[in-house]
Amino acid sequence: MAKVVPARSEVLFLFRSLLRTARQFSDYNIREYTKRRTIDGFRQNRTLSDPDSIASAFSHGKAQLEIAKRQAVVYSLYAPKVKSIMDLKPCNTV
Amino acid sequence: MALRAAILRHVRVPVKTLTLTGRKSQPWGPNGASLRFLSSHGDDHLSKDEVIERVLSVIKSFPKVDPSQVTPDVHFQKDLGLDSLDNVEIVMALEEEFKLEIPDKEADKIDSIGYL
């Protein structure tokens, strides 16, 4: 597999795409998990300096983005009928 | 007849201002960045001060930011010690707050509140 070190802007673009995709999930738990997982994953790998591991982390991220995009579509077909309590308006609960 | 119309017009004014202030005092949730379920139609007529206030509240609620350091002309990475990932997160939080989507090219340029 060709190992090309991604540019900084490419990494940020992947990060942003993952976060955008995460927002599309209708289920609160999945939405928050995807967001959290994305942020944690990028934080964890931010200190990588070896070109090989950077490239593999980047391609892993891209694969995850494809999965997230597909699952966002699949889950939208089977959206939960009841919203999570965390989704309710704060002013309703106060 | 003219008097009636005038009274009606007069009566309607306070009602309008009431709905406006009601919308302004809408709680934003504990973390500010939480989703607001109002449609974006209500946000068309924001005053500049209101926008600044909302931007500041979003940034102050960001976990790594010390709220006391946030001022309208602070720079995210230089003054608040954030990195480029935090930067993206802040822009995403702002998108959620204002229910809009910022194109990537523009989003990359946002590095301070002053820029906004």
In short:
By secondary structure, chain A is mainly α. Chain A has helices spanning 8-23, 28-44, 51-77, 90-93. Chain B has one domain (2-109).
Average pLDDT score of chain B: 68
Low-confidence stretches of chain B: 13-42
Number of domains of chain A: 1
Number of helices of chain B: 5
N/C terminus separation of chain B: 50 Å
Main beta-sheet annotation of chain B: none
What structural class do the secondary elements of chain B suggest? mainly alpha
Tell me the β content of chain B.
Answer: under 5%
- Tally of extended strands of chain A? 0
Radius of gyration of chain A: 16 Å
The percent range for helix content of chain A is 55-70%
- State the total count of DSSP E strands of chain B: 0
User: Which class of secondary structure composition applies to the elements of chain A?
Assistant: mainly alpha
Shape designation of chain A: elongated
How large is the radius of gyration of chain B?
Answer: 18 Å
Average pLDDT for all residues of chain A? 86
Number of domains of chain B: 1
Order of helices and strands of chain B: HHHHH
Choose one word for the global shape of chain B: elongated
Which chains have the largest interface?
A-B, 18 and 19 residues
InterPro entries (chain A): Complex1_LYR_dom, Complex1_LYR_LYRM4
Domain Complex 1 LYR protein (chain A): 10-66
Protein name (chain A): Complex 1 LYR protein domain-containing protein
GO molecular function, one term (chain B): acyl binding
